[in-house]
Structure formats: structure tokens, C-alpha cells
């Protein structure tokens, strides 16, 4: 029997928890799945699965064999990719991790264009607002918006992300409109758990940095939830422009403090290795870099700034 196919069968069983589910996923009969599993156990020289009436689970030997099978399949895929490079056509599956807001605003349309350009590639988008372990979670590329990358990460900056402070007309009708950055300390600010939860940072028209402590009765680890709450009049929110500017243009949200620029963030592509990068991943990195450079529609422009007053000053960096 084909050992590559046997490895695919075993990995599918382990990931789906049953031979029936594996058979369905691989378009294979259950009898054939059973034969491949038996062959894999014969090659491993050990029982790989605990079988029960409800679910299959890995033995210790099965856990070790699963890791080896995944490595075998990745190597087989790399060999196919090497052949594709010679033919000038990147191939294979790419797993990408990204926040929900960036996925909706940027990644979904970008991946549609990428797949049209490289029809032999596939993309699996993993929507996650936490930093992921690329190796453990088998992620080829993670997109993160941050200014604080860990020093051991391999990353390529794709663009800068501008933000905007905004609120619904209903909130402003009840609580008034802040005229200065310092006024935000007296408002109900909806905060993002992973960035700027208690301190929002700005630059004024003279290039001076400033900050204001903010607080509120709602925080979340996912920024689109805060945006929806702001639309319902829950409070003032700091959002990426790519999420908020369409709602501001429609009047559903009102931009606040346009004379002050919120701290700019970097949009980074993070991956595991420069030396062993597949042709498909290299093509994706180059494509995304070009997408951010050429597609101005993903990032709207801020209205012209007006003159503002003084708030707490920070030293220039």
C-alpha cells in the first residue's frame, strides 16, 4: 500500500476522531480506511489508537506516529511545491491566522484575488485575536497588528494601520462630545483587551505625543464586538480606520477629535523560516505586500485636522 496515503488516512482519523468521519473526508470506503490504519500500525509496530464505542483516542505510540506522519506529509507537499516552482506555479495549502476585523476588511478580498492568480493554491483562514504558536498550530502565516513584536519572531511589515476615535450619535446626544483628548478620561470608553486598554496615545498637529487614561464598563478581546457596541450607543471606541470609516461616512458613527492622530500600528506578516519557505508562501507574502501598496481602498483617509488644545505631553521618541 501507499505509505503517503496511509499517513493521510491516519492523520485524518486522529484529527476527526473517527474512521467514519475520515472516510467521508477522504471520499474513501470505511473498509479501505481500516486497511490503511492496520497497515500503519504494522509499520509502526504498535497499536496507535484506543478504540471505544464513542470515540477513538491516540496511544502514546499513536501520538509519536501522528507527529511523524504530519512531517512526512509536509515533506511530500514540499517536494510537490519544488516541482511547481520549476513549472512557475505555486501549489499547496496555506494556513493563515488573522484577527476577525482584518480578515473581513482585507484578507477575504485579498485572498480571493490571490487564489484567482494562483489557482493551484488553497487557503485555510484561522480567525483568532490572540497571538498563535505557528509551529504547534501548523500556521504558515500570521497577520498581526502591533508595535511590540517579540524579538525572536521572523516578520515582514506589510503596511501601517491608522485608527480613529468615534461614537454613535445617540451616545453623543446623551453625554456630549469631547473637544480635547483629555476629555476622554470623563467618558465611557470601550477598550480592547490586548491593546491600549487603559491608555490611549495620540499625536497633535505639531507632532507632539500625548496620552490619556481611559476606562469604561465594557472591554473585549475582539475589536469588532466593540464596534458593534459603539453602534448601539454604548460608548466611545478606538477602531482601525478600515473598520470604522465606512460607518462614519454613512453617519452611523461620528469621528471624534480629528485634530489628534491616534497611535499608528504596524501590520506584520509572521512566519517560521526564511530558508525553508515554500513557493506558495513566498508568493503569498509578495502578493500581500503588493496588495497593501496598491489597494488604497482598504484604508480610508481622515478628514483634514483642525486646531486643538493641550493635554498631557509625552517626550518625543
TrEMBL record:
Residues 1-59 form the HTH lysR-type domain. Keywords: DNA-binding, Transcription, Transcription regulation. Belongs to the LysR transcriptional regulatory family. InterPro entries: LysR-type_TF_proteobact-type (IPR058163), LysR_HTH_N (IPR000847), LysR_subst-bd (IPR005119), WH-like_DNA-bd_sf (IPR036388), WH_DNA-bd_sf (IPR036390). Pfam families: HTH_1 (PF00126), LysR_substrate (PF03466). It comes from Duganella qianjiadongensis. PANTHER family: HTH-TYPE TRANSCRIPTIONAL REGULATOR, TRANSCRIPTIONAL REGULATORY PROTEIN. Gene3D superfamilies: 3.40.190.290, Winged helix-like DNA-binding domain superfamily/Winged helix DNA-binding domain. This is LysR family transcriptional regulator. The keyword GTP-binding does not apply.
Amino acid at each position: 500500500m501507499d505509505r503517503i496515503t496511509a499517513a493521510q488516512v491516519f492523520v485524518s482519523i486522529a484529527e476527526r476522531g473517527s474512521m467514519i468521519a475520515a472516510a467521508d473526508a477522504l471520499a474513501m470506503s470505511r473498509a479501505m480506511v481500516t486497511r490503511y490504519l492496520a497497515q500503519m500500525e504494522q509499520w509502526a509496530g504498535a497499536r496507535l489508537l484506543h478504540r471505544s464505542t464513542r470515540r477513538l483516542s491516540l496511544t502514546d505510540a499513536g501520538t509519536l506516529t501522528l507527529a511523524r506522519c504530519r512531517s512526512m506529509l509536509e515533506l511530500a507537499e514540499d517536494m510537490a511545491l519544488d516541482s511547481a516552482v520549476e513549472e512557475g506555479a505555486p501549489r499547496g495549502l496555506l494556513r493563515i491566522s488573522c484577527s476577525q476585523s482584518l480578515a473581513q476588511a482585507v484578507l477575504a478580498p485579498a485572498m480571493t484575488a490571490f487564489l484567482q492568480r494562483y489557482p493551484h493554491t488553497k487557503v485555510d483562514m484561522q480567525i483568532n485575536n490572540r497571538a498563535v504558536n505557528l509551529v504547534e498550530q501548523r500556521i504558515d502565516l500570521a497577520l498581526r497588528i502591533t508595535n511590540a513584536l517579540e524579538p525572536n519572531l521572523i516578520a515582514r511589515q506589510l503596511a501601517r494601520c491608522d485608527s480613529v476615535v468615534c461614537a454613535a450619535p445617540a451616545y453623543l446626544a446623551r453625554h456630549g462630545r469631547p473637544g480635547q483628548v483629555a476629555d476622554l478620561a470623563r467618558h465611557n470608553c470601550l477598550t480592547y483587551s490586548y491593546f491600549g486598554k487603559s491608555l490611549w496615545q495620540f499625536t497633535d498637529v505639531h507632532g507632539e505625543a500625548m496620552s490619556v487614561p481611559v476606562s469604561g464598563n465594557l472591554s473585549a478581546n475582539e475589536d469588532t464586538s466593540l464596534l458593534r457596541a459603539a453602534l448601539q450607543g454604548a460608548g466611545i471606541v478606538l477602531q482601525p480606520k478600515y473598520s470604522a470609516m465606512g460607518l462614519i461616512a454613512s453617519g452611523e458613527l461620528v469621528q471624534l477629535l480629528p485634530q489628534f492622530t491616534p497611535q499608528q500600528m504596524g501590520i506584520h506578516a509572521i512566519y517560521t523560516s526564511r530558508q525553508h519557505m515554500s513557493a506558495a508562501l513566498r508568493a503569498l507574502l509578495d502578493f500581500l505586500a503588493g496588495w497593501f501598496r496598491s489597494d488604497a481602498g482598504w484604508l480610508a483617509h481622515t478628514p483634514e485636522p483642525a486646531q486643538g488644545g493641550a493635554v498631557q505631553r509625552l517626550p518625543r521618541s
